[in-house]
Amino acid sequence: MPKAAKLRSSLEDANGVKAGTVCILLAGRFRGRRVVLLKKDTKTNTLVVTGPYKVNGVPIRRVDPAYVIATSTKLDVSKLDTSAITDDFFARPKKDRKKGEDGFFKKGDKAEKTELPAAKKQAQEKVDEQIMKLLSGNEDMTKYLGSIFTLRDHDLPHTMKF
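Structure (tokenized):
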């Protein structure tokens, strides 16, 4: 029986990925988008990334390292203030659930669209503003982050250098 190959071990443990690395998302709603790594969340073993939202529409979100390709492109985000991004930032609000027959048999009510909390909007704007200052002199980097990564026929991803 052949040895099992270690699949993308450099990314799964995310040791080689540092804050400021431009990454490509591989799955989910924003697959193919290039994002900037803000920091690693050691508690949940995830990566905190953002688009920035003004450039490509990707908000601040946590991503599993297995669903990310790290590129060799880096931004200097050492002076970025990410103090507002904690576990509470990603916590979902508690819902009031009705008990008994009313909650079980209630039909016809459509889910109301909830507004994003002001704290999240403010944190996103603050981080975006700081990243946009880094990108202000570099038009090519802004276009690079705004573009989508795709594979075409005859593209060989195993031979690509990211």
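The chain is about 25% helix and 15% strand. The longest strand covers residues 34-41.
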